[in-house]
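Prompt: I keep going back and forth on a fold encoding question. Comparing notes only helps if you start from a blank page. Show me how you would write down a chain together with its backbone fold. Please set it down just below, with no commentary around it:
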Amino acid sequence: MSKYQRDKGAAWERQVARDLTKATGMKHHRCLTETQQGNVGDIATPLPFVFQCKVGARPPIYQAMREAEAAAGATHYPVAVIKRDNREKLMVFTYADGLELISMLVREGVL
C-alpha cells in the first residue's frame, strides 16, 4: 500500500471519528493501535460498536465487514464505514444486527 493510500485511509478514519463525536457528544478518535496490535477496529469508541473504515475508488465493503466482525466478538456490533472517492458514504451493518437495532429503537420508543 502506498503512502498516499495510507494517508487517505488515515484522513477518512479521522473524519469518521470527528463525525461520531459530533453526532453523539462522546469522544471518538482514530485507533492507532490497529496497526500495532492487529484488528481492534479503526475507531476507539465508548459505544458497543467496532468501526472498520475503508476508502477508495472501489472500497472493499465485505472485507471491511469481515474485519469488523472479527474484532467485534459477541459483545459489540460490527460496522463497516465506507467512502467511495469523492462520492457517497455508507455505514453498513449486518442484516441481523440492523434488525436488532431497529427492534431496540422501536421497543425503547425512539421510533
Summary: The radius of gyration is 14 Å. The helical segments are 3-24, 34-37, 61-72, 95-107.
